[in-house]
Amino acid sequence: MTYVIIDACIDVKDESCVAVCPVDCIYADEGDRMRYIHPTECIDCAVCVEACPVAAIYADTDLPAEAQAFLDLNAIWFKDKDAARAQIDAQKPADH
Ligand code: SF4
Ligand code: SF4
């Protein structure tokens, strides 16, 4: 099991979750439009869920149907950041 960040984080990325995660497993690089949870570092504590102001974090077992793609997308970022970023841009084109 892991927790997963979904599209509500895109272009919000305010880092409230990062401040509370006890194992520092929520990542982004400069230029990323959202944050990603490392699927094996996450200890499923759920603390981040309440911290997120836009309700962007779910347990993988509790993901809304329309957000299922984000389970893979969170994992993909750790293997191929450009591929993950391309999927985000395709899903929600940047304003500029
Ligand atoms: S708190 Fe929510 S919006 Fe902010 S970075 Fe974390 S998941 Fe994204
Ligand atoms: S569930 Fe816990 S360990 Fe996993 S990302 Fe959230 S705060 Fe970090």
In short, what is this structure?
This protein is an alpha+beta fold.
What does this structure look like?
This protein has 96 residues and is α+β, with helices and mostly antiparallel strands. The chain has one domain (3-91): 2-Layer Sandwich (Alpha-Beta Plaits), CATH 3.30.70. It is 31% helix and 10% strand. The protein is built from 4 helices and 4 strands. It has helices spanning 16-20, 47-51, 69-77, 81-91; strands at 3-5, 26-27, 36-37, 57-59. The strands form 2 sheets. Strands 1-4 form a two-stranded antiparallel sheet. Strands 2-3 form a two-stranded antiparallel sheet.
Helix content: 25-40%
Report the count of strand segments.
4
Q: Distance between termini?
A: 36 Å
Beta-strand residue fraction: 5-15%
CATH class division: Alpha Beta
Summary tags:
96 residues; alpha+beta; Alpha-Beta Plaits; two-stranded antiparallel ribbon; binds iron/sulfur cluster
What's the SSE blueprint?
Elements: E1 3-5, H1 16-20, E2 26-27, E3 36-37, H2 47-51, E4 57-59, H3 69-77, H4 81-91
Antiparallel strand pairs: 1-4, 2-3
The structure holds iron/sulfur cluster (2 copies).
